[in-house]
Design brief:
The complex is a heterodimer of chains A (about 190) and B (about 110).
Chain A (H helix, E strand, L loop, with lengths): L1 H20 L3 H21 L3 H26 L11 H18 L11 H4 L1 H12 L6 H9 L1 H22 L3 H5 L11
Helix pairs in contact in A: 1-2, 2-3, 7-8
Chain B lengths: L8 H27 L3 H26 L4 H25 L14
Helix pairs in contact in B: 1-2, 2-3
Membrane topology (chain A): Multi-pass membrane protein
InterPro entries (chain A): CPA3_Na-H_Antiporter_A, MrpA_C/MbhD, MrpA_C/MbhE, Nuo/plastoQ_OxRdtase_6_NuoJ
Subcellular location (chain A): Cell membrane
């Protein structure tokens, strides 16, 4: 089982490096699809099928189509090769090292004495029926009430992202009925 | 969630060998997608990568004895198909709208 996990993580790293080095935009979009498939498989091996479901549907399905349609509107000009500098990779390495250092304090995967298994969940299971005036579903009680502000923030983020996508992908009726506009008057 | 049916030792070793083979094939597809000079090399490599992901998930589901992962494998193949159709439509017409201008000749 460890072989599969290590191989998947290695493939994830290779895909990330390939995305960073590719200069054709549509190839980079395809590689983000590969990355989503890989990370969804990894999440499923970590026993989180619901997160893997969301990652596969959103990351590999919707966002690939959205990025492709955005590229159809904005033109697929290749990025000019920039002068490589050491600052970005230094920042990335420092951030990654900080995150890895942070994981050292985390309990092992599925440890029975992890705080998440001990403290909050039993009390939520016991109290949610009285707190929510008889609502039987604990997950709904958590999402809609205990974590209400968090869910409100997430919904705001989704709404903002949807508005931004609609603004990018909209097409004026006059412009669509006219002859095909040249690529210059689309906002890049 | 208890495992439905854990495989025997021989079956488990065979499934391990299968998953290693699938992972090697995924690496080869990734190499082709990185090197691929034309669009269709890359499209084929991506399609094969998605198929191999479905296979890997199925093998892992039998390895861990959780048959509910097979539903996820079905979803993955559906998403792979949708993404592939979108990609090919984009490369053919450079647009997603319904009123695409007809090509004079298929490239």
């Amino acid at each position: 089982m460890n072989i599969i996990v290590f191989a998947l993580l290695a493939l994830l790293a290779i895909t990330a490096v390939a995305i960073a080095r590719l200069r054709e935009l549509w190839a980079a979009i395809m590689f983000t699809g590969i990355y989503s498939f890989l990370s969804a498989s990894w999440m499923m091996i970590l026993d989180a099928p619901d997160v893997a479901f969301t990652e596969a549907a959103v990351g590999a399905g919707i966002s690939t189509v959205l990025m492709l349609s955005t590229m159809a509107l904005t033109g697929q000009g290749e990025d000019i090769p920039r002068k490589s500098s050491w600052m970005p990779i230094l920042i990335v390495v420092v951030t990654g090292a900080t995150l890895v250092y942070g994981t050292l304090d985390m309990p092992a995967l599925g440890a029975p004495d992890a705080p998440v298994q001990l403290y909050p969940s039993p009390s939520y299971v016991e109290r949610s029926v009285e707190d929510m005036h008889g609502l039987p579903n604990v997950v709904t009680a958590l999402l809609a009430s205990y974590r209400g502000y968090d869910t409100l923030g997430e919904t705001t983020v989704v709404l903002t992202a949807g508005i931004a996508v609609l603004l990018i992908l909209r097409r004026d009726p006059k412009e669509a009925s006219a002859t095909e506009p040249s690529a210059g008057d689309e906002p890049a | 969630m208890t495992p439905d049916l854990l495989p025997s030792d021989l079956t488990s070793a065979m499934l391990m060998a299968t998953s290693v083979g699938v992972l090697v094939t995924m690496s080869l597809a990734l190499v082709r997608a990185t090197l691929g000079p034309t669009v269709f090399d890359r499209v084929l490599a991506l399609n094969m990568f998605g198929t191999k992901t479905v296979l890997l998930i199925s093998v892992v589901s039998f390895l861990t004895g959780r048959s509910d992962f097979l539903d996820l494998a079905l979803l993955y193949s559906l998403i792979n198909f949708v993404g592939m159709v979108a990609l090919l439509r984009f490369t053919q017409y450079n647009s997603f709208s319904d009123n695409v201008p007809p090509r004079e000749e298929s490239p």
